[in-house]
Amino acid sequence: GGCSDGASVASSSAEASGVRSCEICLCRQPLRTKHCYDCGRCVHTFDHHCFWIGRCVGERNRRLFWWYLFTELMTLLWADAICASTFVKVTTGSWATDWFLVNLPNLAAIVVCLSFTLMLATLWFFQTYLIGTGQTSWEVLRSRSIFYLREVPEHVYPFSRGCCLNISSVCLRDPKRKAPHEWPMPAEPYGDAQRFWWIENEHWSCF
């Protein structure tokens, strides 16, 4: 009983300071760090494990992941334009039937391309929203179960430093920076940059 109480006190103290230890990696686990069981390691500023690239998206590669999504989205938009330019104009016979038969392969191609474009655009805009508000996918999906977010009020982004600074620090940051960012434990009072954002505040939400 005493040992259990001691472990509980130690755990509460660690959560209060924002620093815990990983029982699998046996290392210090800073705030916003999560152990990924697929990769078998702890990831700083963990976002999610992406099976498309076969690794986690976190602090060190989130910039590359965002640009990867952007490049893929531009490529798909280019493919959409190419598909749209291949439609053949039909002016003889039964216009609707002949047009459909002649352009059926082109129509199938553009439907497939547009489907992938919509899926990728949704993911890219969601990642941009997360970066702009200083959040991660893991924190949005598990906010009530993550110890450092349980007491944070709704519509408050405790790690935000303002939309422009959030985006520039992730998407345009220096890749040579070696040391991981040390995030402070969320605590009141929250600044204006952490409290409201232009598509989600106390009056409306676009999500």
Fold blueprint:
Elements: H1 2-17, E1 20-22, E2 27-29, E3 34-36, E4 41-43, E5 48-50, E6 55-57, H2 62-84, H3 95-132, H4 137-141, H5 163-171, H6 192-195
Antiparallel strand pairs: 1-2, 3-4, 5-6
Helix pairs in contact: 2-3
Key features of this structure:
207 residues; mainly alpha; two-stranded antiparallel ribbon; 6 helices; 6 strands; 9% strand; disordered N terminus
Low-confidence stretches: 1-11
Order of helices and strands: HEEEEEEHHHHH
Total of helices: 6
Q: Into which percentage range does the β-strand content fall? A: 5-15%
Q: Report the count of strand segments.
A: 6
Rounded to the nearest angstrom, the radius of gyration is 23 Å
What is the assembly state of the chains in this entry?
single chain
The dominant shape is: elongated
Percent of residues in helices: 40-55%
Overall pLDDT level = 82
**How far apart, in Å, are the first and last alpha carbons?**
46 Å
Give the helix/strand class.
mainly alpha
Q: How is this structure best described in words?
A:
The chain has helices spanning 2-17, 62-84, 95-132, 137-141, 163-171, 192-195, and strands at 20-22, 27-29, 34-36, 41-43, 48-50, 55-57. It has 207 residues and is mainly alpha-helical. α2 runs antiparallel to α3. Helices cover 46% and strands 9% of the residues.
Brief synopsis:
This protein has 207 residues and is mostly helical. It has helices at residues 2-17, 62-84, 95-132, 137-141, 163-171, 192-195; strands spanning 20-22, 27-29, 34-36, 41-43, 48-50, 55-57.
